[in-house]
Amino acid sequence: MRAPLDPLTVLIGRPAEQAQAWCEAFRELGARVIHQPALKLEPAQPGAAELAALADVRPTDCSVFSSTPAVANARLLPAMAARLERTVSWAVGTQTARALVEAGARSVRSPAEGSGADALLADPAFPDAERVFLFAAKGGRTVLAETLAQRGIEAIDMYVYRRSAAPLDPAAAAALARPGQTIVVVGSSVAVLDRLMDLFGESLNNAYLISLGPRITDAASRFSFAEVITAQSPGLASVIQAARLISERIAG
Fold first, then answer.
1. pTM
2. Which domains does the chain have, with CATH numbers?
3. Are 225 and 207 in contact (CB under 8 A)?
4. pLDDT digits (tens, 9 = 90+) for 180-218
5. Residue burial 57-84, b: 16+ Cβ < 10 Å; e: rest
6. 50: which residues sit within 8 A by CB, 6+ positions away?
7. pLDDT digits (tens, 9 = 90+) for 54-70
8. Dihedral (CA of 220, 209, 25, 170) sign
9. In sequence order, what are the residues at sequence separation of 6 or more whose Cβ sits closer than 8 angstroms to the Cβ of residue 56?
């Protein structure tokens, strides 16, 4: 009996720290997996003024975490344990929420519908705070800070990690160049998609793309994918469901 994803070669560009479970899940379903990290993550230290504000824990504060790496790096900061214990922590999605619980956060919330910054801003319960600490990567989207400022809420950027382009893995390039493959690219962010296209270019022409959100779907219009399928949510289960759909269409 054919495995559910047997005909597919799945290209995953998530950073190494986040990719293992995804690669294993696709392999278990029969896909041939190529992992080429698009970005590498490095810790960053907020400035002295931001750290001083962080140490001044107030019950009317809340924190927002943009990703699981944001949680992992933020928890190393001074006074972070007290902040996680005594104030509300917002996550942009379920995986980040789970990481916060594991980090010891007492009160964890996430958008009632959807995920990401836009879903967070659309949630009527967010932020319910006088100051909001934004834990994220340096150089990421600024929509949260800008919108909170428009609402008259103090937003403090806490850049706890940075992203840079990862080098090309020659083994991944060789595996992707093999003829006769049905390639499926997992687009986990616009930055990941752009870097994968920089690395592989025409090798991904006529590949399928599984997009994890509307912004990625919009960005994909710049490239020549055979089809772009937007997953119902950015979680692994929804991405696998989209891959199953592609596999079924190919099988006819």
1. 0.84
2. 8-38+168-251 (3.40.50.10090), 42-164 (3.40.50.10090)
3. yes
4. 999 999 999 999 999 999 999 989 999 999 999 888 999
5. eeeebbbbbbbbbbbbbbbebeebeebb
6. 156, 157, 158
7. 999 999 999 999 999 99
8. negative
9. none
